[in-house]
Amino acid sequence: MSSASSAIPKRAAAAGVTNVEFIVGDVQTLEAVDGTFDAVVSKLILMYLPIQSTALCRAARHVRPGGLVVAHEADLTYGWAAPQSLLRSQVRDWFLQPLAATHIEARMGLRLCRCFLEAGLSTPTLTLEAAVASGPEAAA
Question: Which residues fall within 8 angstroms of residue 137, CB to CB, at 6 or more apart?
Answer without folding.
Answer: none
